[in-house]
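User: My collaborator sent over this chain with a note saying "see what the structure looks like." That's all I know about it. Can you take a look?
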Amino acid sequence: MMNIPIQHVGGNQGRQLYKEVRVDNEYRWQRQHWRTLQTAYRTSPFFEYYEDDLAPLFQTNYKFLIDFNFEAIKIICDCLQLDMPVTKTKEYYVQPTDCKDLRFLVSAKKPVGVHFPKYTQVFGQRHGFIENLSILDLLFNEGTSAPSYLEELVLSTLDE
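Assistant: Without extra context I'll predict from the sequence alone. Here is the result:
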């Protein structure tokens, strides 16, 4: 897992809003992340195909975490040939009523109830297939077939 260092607020300020979380650019995290991706995926079938699209994420300093995340989502959507979602909420809703709540899908700590069909991964012979590794793993290994792979996923938790 690659983490982005953030600047933590002091104890008196309490919790901060997501839009106010600042990236700590004193540490060269982007350089380290990019080198990690290059080392892990340089031999994958589609790394070079997406390399130029993704590189700016690791070459531009971002002041706020939300700006990095939105740019990453935009680039991934472009790579998958998907339209970038343009609407944003103005406030946090514990239980939204006007849309399907899919926030559980981004939890790294809970299983998401999705069966991921196997595809060839760079280190698959050594480690076996690792489910739900990352969208970058899927892109670098499946390339232009990644959107079809995602469309075929059966989200068993959504059938509730």
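A starting point for your reply to your collaborator: Residues 49 and 126 are 25 Å apart (CA to CA).
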